[in-house]
Amino acid sequence: MASNSDFVQYIADQCAQAGEINVKKMFGDYGVYCDGKIIGLICDDCFYLKPTEAVRPLLRVVELRPPYDGAKDYFLIADVDDRDYLATIVRETCKALPEPKPKKKKS
């Protein structure tokens, strides 16, 4: 089941204080980017954050689940209504993740 576009926009708006937030449709659901880094996924109207040890102590509830069949576990973020909380954990996830690899130029 794909995510509702209103829910996707709500998550993007809630995370806006963390940095430059973009969502991109991928494989029927959405990737969530902060400052050019993919930090999470929105699948079946649930928000999943890439797991990092830096963010684990900041989470109100630590629940690891795969966002789709065959995926690695991500943090399931059920409390998406607290804008400050969401911005904090997204910002800290972004800081903890490596810079994206440069894209190769097509020949």
Separation, N- and C-terminal Cα atoms: 37 Å
Widest beta sheet: strand line-up = 1-2-3-4-6-5
> Beta fraction of the residues?
25-35%
CATH topology: Yope Regulator, Chain: A
Cα radius of gyration in angstroms? 13 Å
CATH class: Alpha Beta
Helix content: 10-25%
Unreliable stretches (pLDDT < 50, length at least 5) are none
**Secondary structure: number of strands:** 6
Order of helices and strands: HEEEEEEH
Oligomer: single chain
Helix/strand class: alpha+beta
Instruction: Give the name of the CATH architecture.
Output: 2-Layer Sandwich
Mean pLDDT: 93
Instruction: Compute the number of structural domains.
Output: 1
How many helices? The count is 2
CATH superfamily: YgaC/TfoX-N like chaperone
Descriptive overview:
The protein has two helices and six strands. It is of the alpha+beta class. The chain has one domain: YgaC/TfoX-N like chaperone (Yope Regulator, Chain: A). Strand 3 (37-43) and strand 4 (46-49) form a beta hairpin.
Summarize the structure.
By secondary structure, this protein is an alpha+beta fold. It has two helices and six strands, in the order αββββββα. The model has no long low-confidence stretch (mean pLDDT 93).
